[in-house]
């Protein structure tokens, strides 16, 4: 099994160049950025703060999960849901445009301790974003991760082909338009297979349900919280969450937490 070694974890403010900005199904875009210099080292689960220019109503940077890093193409990917003026402005960027990005921020997912561990990556909605890079890293380390992805309907399922590159993919949709009907915690794979570790990101109710399943079955579980993060550095204190050790900033102490460290009712 290959070693997982990071050389450099400094933070950078970079002017990156848009190499492509693809509109996906529904209100989602896949933005790819590049640079003449080698992109910094990044961990799966970390995020970036993106400056939105030419938006009179967007005063703060937008926190966006790091979706994937293509080292061969020297590209950084962001999977973005269009929910306001700021993200809609990002959708208007064209190839060759510049984008100011601060990264990498926060703490990422931890790596498994044992080579034979069965790993489950659970994502809902745009919360699937950090799981692609995580899956790629785990696959590179010799694991065969299982992805369990949930969405409201088929049109909200994104990049299934990309996920299938790194593991087995199972899907639920609330309207039964694709995969099994229902929520991710209802999928039959949870009864068919024993997992040793779960990673999850998505809407809070979904993550709490996944965390409850993990706790009930004594499975180690990490969640990536999606609190509003204005500064990304732990200075503004607008993203605090309650933990067993008191209040912590999601942006600097997280966004990834082990469920044992959170005061969730599980």
Please explain how this structure is put together.
- By secondary structure, the chain is α/β, with parallel strands linked by helices.
- It is 17% helix and 32% strand.
- It has helices at 85-91, 129-140, 160-164, 189-192, 204-216, 250-253; strands at residues 12-23, 28-34, 47-50, 62-65, 68-70, 75-81, 98-105, 119-124, 146-151, 168-173, 180-181, 197-201, 220-224, 240-243, 246-249, 256-258.
- The protein has a seven-stranded antiparallel β-sheet. Strands 11-10-9-8-12-13-16 form a seven-stranded mixed β-sheet, with helices on both faces.
- Strand 12, helix 5 (204-216) and strand 13 (220-224) form a beta-alpha-beta unit.
- The longest helix has 13 residues, at 204-216.
- The mean pLDDT is 92.
Oligomer state equals single chain
Spans of 5+ residues with little confidence (pLDDT < 50)? none
What is the count of DSSP helices, taking H or I runs of 4+ residues? 6
Tell the overall outline: globular
> What kind of sheet is the major sheet?
7 strands, antiparallel
Distance between the termini: 34 Å
Helix share, percent? 10-25%
Tags for this model:
266 residues, alpha/beta, seven-stranded antiparallel β-sheet, seven-stranded mixed β-sheet, 6 helices, 16 strands, 17% helix
Strands, helices and their partners?
Blueprint: E1 12-23, E2 28-34, E3 47-50, E4 62-65, E5 68-70, E6 75-81, H1 85-91, E7 98-105, E8 119-124, H2 129-140, E9 146-151, H3 160-164, E10 168-173, E11 180-181, H4 189-192, E12 197-201, H5 204-216, E13 220-224, E14 240-243, E15 246-249, H6 250-253, E16 256-258
Parallel strand pairs: 8-9, 8-12, 9-10, 10-11, 12-13
Antiparallel strand pairs: 1-2, 1-7, 2-6, 3-4, 3-7, 5-6, 13-16, 14-15
């Amino acid at each position: 099994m290959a070693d997982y070694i990071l050389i450099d974890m400094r933070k950078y403010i970079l002017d990156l160049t848009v190499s492509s900005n693809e509109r996906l199904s529904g209100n989602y875009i896949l933005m790819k950025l590049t640079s003449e210099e080698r992109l910094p080292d990044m961990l799966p689960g970390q995020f970036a703060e993106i400056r939105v220019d030419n938006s009179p109503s967007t005063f703060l940077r937008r926190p966006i999960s790091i979706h994937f890093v293509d080292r061969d193409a020297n590209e950084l990917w962001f999977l973005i849901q269009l929910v306001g003026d700021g993200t809609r402005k990002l959708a208007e960027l064209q190839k060759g445009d510049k984008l100011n990005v601060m990264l990498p921020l926060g703490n990422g997912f931890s790596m498994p301790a044992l080579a034979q561990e069965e790993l489950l990556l659970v994502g809902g909605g745009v919360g699937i974003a950090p799981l692609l890079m995580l899956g790629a890293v785990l696959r590179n380390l010799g694991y065969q991760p299982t992805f369990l992805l949930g969405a409201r309907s088929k049109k909200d399922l994104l990049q299934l082909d990309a996920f299938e590159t790194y593991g087995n993919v199972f899907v639920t949709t609330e309207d039964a338009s694709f995969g099994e009907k229902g929520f991710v915690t209802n999928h039959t794979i949870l009864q068919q297979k024993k997992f040793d570790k779960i990673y999850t990101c998505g809407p809070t109710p979904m993550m709490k349900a996944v965390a409850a399943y993990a706790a009930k079955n004594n499975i180690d579980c990490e969640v990536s919280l999606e609190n509003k993060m204005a500064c990304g550095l732990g200075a503004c204190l607008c993203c605090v969450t309650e933990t067993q050790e008191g209040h912590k900033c999601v942006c600097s102490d997280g966004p990834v937490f082990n469920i044992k460290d959170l005061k969730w009712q599980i």
